[in-house]
Design brief:
By secondary structure, the chain is α+β, with helices and mostly antiparallel strands. 48% of the residues lie in helices and 25% in strands. It is built from four helices and five strands. It has a five-stranded antiparallel sheet. α1 packs antiparallel against α2 (25-42), α1 (2-18) packs parallel to α3 (49-72) and α2 packs antiparallel against α3. The protein is globular. The model is unreliable at 1-23 (pLDDT under 50).
Protein backbone atom coordinates (compact mmCIF):
# COMPACT_ATOMS: atom_id res chain seq x y z
CA UNK A 1 0.00 0.00 0.00
CA UNK A 2 2.74 2.47 0.97
CA UNK A 3 4.69 1.79 -2.26
CA UNK A 4 1.55 2.42 -4.35
CA UNK A 5 1.15 5.80 -2.65
CA UNK A 6 4.81 6.78 -2.99
CA UNK A 7 5.37 5.67 -6.61
CA UNK A 8 3.39 8.54 -8.21
CA UNK A 9 5.18 11.01 -5.96
CA UNK A 10 8.59 9.70 -6.98
CA UNK A 11 7.44 10.05 -10.59
CA UNK A 12 6.52 13.67 -9.82
CA UNK A 13 10.02 14.24 -8.42
CA UNK A 14 11.47 12.84 -11.64
CA UNK A 15 9.28 15.20 -13.66
CA UNK A 16 10.55 18.10 -11.56
CA UNK A 17 14.07 16.91 -12.29
CA UNK A 18 13.32 16.92 -16.01
CA UNK A 19 12.27 20.57 -15.69
CA UNK A 20 15.66 21.62 -14.29
CA UNK A 21 16.57 24.65 -16.36
CA UNK A 22 20.26 23.96 -16.81
CA UNK A 23 19.81 20.21 -17.21
CA UNK A 24 22.84 19.43 -15.04
CA UNK A 25 23.25 15.90 -13.77
CA UNK A 26 23.92 17.23 -10.26
CA UNK A 27 20.64 19.07 -10.20
CA UNK A 28 18.68 16.16 -11.67
CA UNK A 29 20.19 13.67 -9.24
CA UNK A 30 19.62 16.05 -6.34
CA UNK A 31 15.97 16.44 -7.30
CA UNK A 32 15.38 12.69 -7.54
CA UNK A 33 17.27 11.77 -4.36
CA UNK A 34 15.68 14.67 -2.46
CA UNK A 35 12.22 13.67 -3.67
CA UNK A 36 12.70 10.07 -2.60
CA UNK A 37 14.13 11.08 0.80
CA UNK A 38 11.25 13.51 1.30
CA UNK A 39 8.70 10.83 0.38
CA UNK A 40 10.21 8.37 2.84
CA UNK A 41 10.30 10.95 5.65
CA UNK A 42 6.80 12.21 4.85
CA UNK A 43 5.38 8.68 4.83
CA UNK A 44 6.37 8.35 8.50
CA UNK A 45 3.96 11.13 9.51
CA UNK A 46 0.26 10.78 10.25
CA UNK A 47 -2.12 8.07 9.17
CA UNK A 48 -4.67 7.44 6.41
CA UNK A 49 -5.14 10.35 4.05
CA UNK A 50 -2.96 12.52 6.31
CA UNK A 51 -0.04 10.20 5.61
CA UNK A 52 -0.61 10.54 1.86
CA UNK A 53 -0.61 14.33 2.14
CA UNK A 54 2.53 14.26 4.31
CA UNK A 55 4.21 11.98 1.76
CA UNK A 56 3.27 14.31 -1.09
CA UNK A 57 4.51 17.38 0.75
CA UNK A 58 7.70 15.54 1.73
CA UNK A 59 8.31 14.50 -1.88
CA UNK A 60 7.90 18.00 -3.26
CA UNK A 61 9.91 19.68 -0.49
CA UNK A 62 12.67 17.08 -0.77
CA UNK A 63 12.78 17.45 -4.55
CA UNK A 64 13.07 21.24 -4.32
CA UNK A 65 15.77 21.09 -1.64
CA UNK A 66 17.66 18.36 -3.51
CA UNK A 67 17.42 20.37 -6.72
CA UNK A 68 19.01 23.41 -5.07
CA UNK A 69 21.77 21.36 -3.44
CA UNK A 70 22.50 19.50 -6.67
CA UNK A 71 22.66 22.77 -8.56
CA UNK A 72 25.14 24.18 -6.06
CA UNK A 73 27.58 21.27 -5.71
CA UNK A 74 30.51 21.28 -8.11
CA UNK A 75 32.66 18.35 -9.22
CA UNK A 76 35.15 18.80 -6.35
CA UNK A 77 32.32 18.95 -3.79
CA UNK A 78 30.89 15.70 -5.10
CA UNK A 79 34.31 14.03 -5.09
CA UNK A 80 34.89 15.07 -1.47
CA UNK A 81 31.40 13.86 -0.53
CA UNK A 82 32.00 10.48 -2.25
CA UNK A 83 35.29 10.09 -0.36
CA UNK A 84 33.50 10.78 2.93
CA UNK A 85 30.78 8.26 2.03
CA UNK A 86 33.42 5.61 1.30
CA UNK A 87 35.12 6.29 4.64
CA UNK A 88 31.76 6.13 6.43
CA UNK A 89 31.11 2.62 5.05
CA UNK A 90 34.02 1.37 7.19
CA UNK A 91 33.67 3.80 10.11
CA UNK A 92 32.23 2.65 13.42
CA UNK A 93 28.53 3.41 13.93
CA UNK A 94 28.22 6.90 15.39
CA UNK A 95 31.52 8.21 13.99
CA UNK A 96 31.05 11.29 11.82
CA UNK A 97 33.13 11.65 8.66
CA UNK A 98 33.38 15.26 7.48
CA UNK A 99 34.22 16.68 4.07
CA UNK A 100 34.78 20.21 2.83
CA UNK A 101 35.82 22.05 -0.28
CA UNK A 102 37.70 25.25 0.59
CA UNK A 103 37.32 26.51 -2.98
CA UNK A 104 33.50 26.50 -2.92
CA UNK A 105 33.02 26.80 0.86
CA UNK A 106 30.62 23.84 0.76
CA UNK A 107 30.89 21.06 3.31
CA UNK A 108 29.07 18.18 4.89
CA UNK A 109 29.13 15.11 7.08
CA UNK A 110 28.22 11.45 6.80
CA UNK A 111 27.48 9.48 9.97
CA UNK A 112 26.57 5.80 10.06
CA UNK A 113 23.79 5.56 12.66
CA UNK A 114 22.68 1.93 12.45
CA UNK A 115 23.72 -1.32 10.80
CA UNK A 116 22.21 -4.74 10.22
CA UNK A 117 21.07 -7.24 7.62
CA UNK A 118 18.36 -6.67 5.02
CA UNK A 119 15.26 -8.79 5.67
CA UNK A 120 14.74 -9.20 1.92
CA UNK A 121 18.25 -9.95 0.65
CA UNK A 122 20.33 -10.68 3.73
CA UNK A 123 22.84 -8.04 2.60
CA UNK A 124 24.81 -6.04 5.17
CA UNK A 125 23.29 -2.55 5.30
CA UNK A 126 23.95 0.70 7.11
CA UNK A 127 21.70 3.66 7.75
CA UNK A 128 23.35 7.07 7.41
CA UNK A 129 22.64 10.62 8.48
CA UNK A 130 24.04 13.11 5.99
CA UNK A 131 24.35 16.87 6.18
CA UNK A 132 25.30 19.21 3.36
CA UNK A 133 26.02 22.90 3.86
CA UNK A 134 25.78 25.06 0.73
CA UNK A 135 25.98 28.85 0.88
CA UNK A 136 25.62 28.69 4.67
CA UNK A 137 22.37 26.66 4.51
CA UNK A 138 22.48 23.20 6.05
CA UNK A 139 20.23 20.40 4.86
CA UNK A 140 19.93 16.99 6.49
CA UNK A 141 18.91 13.62 5.09
CA UNK A 142 18.78 9.99 6.13
CA UNK A 143 19.34 7.01 3.86
CA UNK A 144 20.35 3.38 3.78
CA UNK A 145 23.07 1.73 1.70
CA UNK A 146 23.67 -2.02 1.37
CA UNK A 147 26.87 -3.79 0.44
CA UNK A 148 26.66 -5.65 -2.86
CA UNK A 149 28.21 -9.07 -3.53
CA UNK A 150 31.15 -7.40 -5.33
CA UNK A 151 31.88 -5.27 -2.22
CA UNK A 152 30.49 -2.02 -3.62
CA UNK A 153 27.71 -0.12 -1.85
CA UNK A 154 24.29 0.75 -3.26
CA UNK A 155 21.86 3.29 -1.85
CA UNK A 156 18.55 1.50 -1.26
CA UNK A 157 16.56 4.27 0.42
Amino acid sequence: MRIKAIAPLVAAAMLLAACAQDGSQNQTAGTIVGGIAGAVLGSQVGGGSGRIVATAVGTLAGALIGNEIGKSLDRNDKAAMRDAEQQAHAAPVGETVAWSNPDSGNSGTVTPVREGRSNQTGAYCREYQTTVTVDGRQEEAFGTACQQPDGSWKIVS
